[in-house]
Amino acid sequence: MNTTTNTVPAVAPGSARTGGGLAVLGMAPFVLFALLFLVVPTALLLVGAFFDREGHFTFGNITELFTNPAIVSSFWLSIKISFASALGGAFIGFFVAYAVILGGLPEWMRGAVMTFSGVASNFAGVPLAFAFLATLGRVGLVTVLLRDYLGFNLYSTGFNILSFTGLTLVYLYFQIPLMVLVIAPALDGLKREWREANAVLGGSNFHYWQHIALPILLPSILGATLLLFANAFGAVATAYALTGSSLPIIPIQLFAQIRGDVLSNPNLGYAIAFGMVVITSISSGAYIWLRSYSERWVR
Fold first, then answer.
1. What is the C-alpha radius of gyration for the chain, rounded to an integer number of angstroms?
2. CA-to-CA distance for 183 and 186, rounded, in angstroms?
3. Which domain holds residue 188?
4. 114 is a domain residue
């Protein structure tokens, strides 16, 4: 009788430790980058928020976040714009992702939409503001075409690209693609067996979405909406390039405090930044928790 023995290659005693050392070395640039551009600046603004210009400890800067009417109104304006663009982006983005993933569209359309979403979700700042001004401004291409060929004056309806509605519309340009990218893995995670089991038990497509798909997707949808909220809340370049100081959202207020003009108060700017960090941290933390909760179904 011939016997075959499986031999396991010997592993050098120090190879595991060497691999771990290489992994740590590979992580070093990321850790250094995070320390220099995230941890240290956050710590500095946290400290600066509790000191005045003379270096004395004070709660005055934090108190002003709740008592200064201009700052309070700016926070609320930013929250409302972020909330509106997050809801709009989540709603439209979900159905776009559903159409290209589960809607039976050609496979090439999914690749095209996902590629465009990856580009558009990072398109912001001055180029995006210019694009919308050239398209929907008072003498923008679409505005002029509607006026000259259809007799419809867009601005006679009360629309203004430099308003709450206009800025929300601009934000949707990168909010919708971001929603598509975030929700796509959750839609891919819906197992075919769940739909087949629903059909075998006599359930309709409505029953499938009511009792199976939506309850599973709900944490992912809520988490993605919170991510969109945090994404819009911290956006400053697009808003400043589009509206200047005519729409004083809180990032623009922060910019005004730290840019060094005669009305600047850097320590108050630190406090404003600290308030923004708190709001975005709560939103991002809730997103991470909801995402981990939804991943249980995929596993």
1. 25
2. 5
3. 49-298
4. yes
30 is a domain residue: no
Count Cβ neighbours within 10 Å for each residue of 130-146 and write b for 16 or more, e otherwise.
eebbeebbeebeebeeb
Phi/psi region, residue 137 (left: phi>0; alpha: psi -120 to 50; beta: rest), is beta
**Tens digit of each residue's pLDDT (9 = 90 or more) over 266-285:** 888 889 989 998 999 899 88
DSSP 228-273: HHHHHHT--HHHHHHHTTSS--HHHHHHHHHS-STT--HHHHHHHH
- Higher model confidence: residue 71 or residue 26? 71
Q: How many structural domains does the chain have?
A: 1
CATH of the domain at 176: 1.10.3720.10
Residue 5 lies inside a defined structural domain of this protein: no
Residue spans of alpha helices (H) in 156-213: 164-188, 192-200, 205-208
Q: Note whether residue 256 is domain-resident.
A: yes
Q: pTM above the 0.70 mark?
A: yes
In angstroms, rounded to a whole number, what is the distance separating the alpha carbons of residues 234 and 217?
26
